[in-house]
Design brief:
single chain; alpha/beta; TIM Barrel; 2 domains; eight-stranded parallel sheet; five-stranded mixed sheet
């Protein structure tokens, strides 16, 4: 099994915020630490990679990735790896049997990391009412179906949403939708407790809501009580309205995605569908620079929503996915970043980490006018993307 030692860089890890070296053994993170300790590992069959100051972060999770409903679905998913994504939750950019077929084929191929694709989890668009509805969907969309969006016309009907939440979550499927209007929010307020009262395993299966309307304290309490995850898609071309800081303070998990759930139930084409992948740092920066200063996140909190938070919301099988710690799957991205810092959500607070006792890992500065460039993306030890920048020497010491 191959071993690769990355050194002379920066490792984003709460396990060791001062680490400059990382050892990968096959598909697993084996160790991270200092240059001095790395000296003793740079021998034998170990391939040594000189990071030359580059940053390694956990591989990223796009929680709302729009997939073209044609034969370019494969190339769109492959392009996501050039932006550091190792997994996506895929929503079709159109309905229909042909679109479902492209998604099924994509998810089946992406199951193997050697495909060069990110892991793909499928969401379909349908409102459930009975177990028979679930069986028909599984037949149509295949074994990789993990979540459902109810039809747009059903999202303001509390009784229909209650039945859908109950049927979907009892079938082990996550569910989620865009909440854009007061009527849709009223339906959520009623449907969540009603489904829970019927024994629907909302927290276990997962409920994801993309909220773009005002939430009061009671609304946030309802979301937190029922284990709802809130999806934010700040690159979707509309002002970010989600009250991120208030939700985080109330214990509501946050995830980030590159394509909006449009009001008509489709994945917005202003995000990832068919074009270049959205820079993850654009998503993080939008959260740090929220239009409402009171709702801004730190870059660390926003990055968590794009990495470990995404895996948690997707109920990943391995508990260490989205982290760089010994024993975690070797899924990570390497970035060219000229400046690292701790960015706070409050511009009046010093952004630089001056006290090493804080043990806060550093992320790229997001105000330089140029986003970090992804040099390499690795999924479970297999390289998905490499731009040829990193210098490798099997005998380097």
């Amino acid at each position: 099994m191959s071993r690769t030692l990355y050194r002379n860089g920066a490792i984003y890890s709460t396990h060791d915020p001062f680490a400059t070296a990382l050892l990968v053994d096959g598909a697993t993170i084996a160790w991270l630490g200092s240059e001095e300790a790395a000296d003793g590992m740079a021998a034998g069959d170990v391939t040594v990679v000189d990071l030359a100051g580059a940053l390694i972060t956990p591989g990223l999770y796009d929680s709302a990735f729009a997939v073209p409903a044609d034969d370019t679905a494969h190339s769109a998913a492959a392009a996501a790896t050039t932006a550091g994504y190792v997994a996506v939750t895929a929503h079709a950019a159109a309905d229909g049997v042909e679109a479902a077929g492209h998604l099924r084929a994509l998810a089946a191929e992406a199951e193997n990391p050697a495909s060069g694709l990110p892991e793909v989890r499928l969401w379909a668009r349908a409102t459930l009412a009975t177990p028979e509805d679930t069986a028909r969907l599984r037949d149509a969309d295949g074994p990789h179906l993990t979540g459902l969006e109810p039809a747009t016309g059903d999202r303001a009907d509390a009784a229909t949403l209650t039945a859908h939440l109950t049927a979907a979550t009892r079938a082990g499927l996550a569910t989620g939708w865009a909440v854009d209007t007061t009527a849709e929010l009223d339906a959520v307020r009623e449907a969540l407790p009603a489904a829970a009262a019927e024994g629907a395993p909302l927290r276990t299966a997962g409920v994801h809501l993309a909220v773009s309307c005002d939430l009061d304290d009671a609304d946030r309490s309802v979301l937190a009580r029922h284990g709802v995850t809130v999806l934010a898609t700040p690159a979707a071309g509309t002002p970010l309205r989600t009250p991120l800081a208030a939700l985080a303070a109330d214990g509501v998990p946050l995830v980030l995605g590159s394509a909006a759930w449009a009001g008509d139930g489709s994945a917005s084409d202003t995000g990832s569908a068919g074009g270049d992948p959205v820079s993850p740092w654009e998503l993080v920066r939008a959260c740090v620079q929220h239009p409402d200063p009171a709702q801004r996140l730190s870059s660390r909190a926003a990055f968590l929503a794009l990495s470990r938070g995404g895996w948690r919301a997707a109920h990943a099988a391995h508990p260490l996915l989205g982290q760089l710690v010994p024993g975690a799957p070797a899924s990570y991205a390497v970035w060219e970043a000229t400046e690292l810092m701790v960015q706070t959500p409050d511009s009046t607070v010093a952004a630089w980490s001056t006290d090493p006792r804080a043990r806060t890992p550093l992320l790229p500065a997001l105000d330089t006018g140029r986003d970090p460039r992804c040099l390499r993306t690795v999924r479970e030890g297999l390289v998905l993307h490499d731009d040829g920048t990193l210098a490798t020497d099997p005998q380097a010491r």
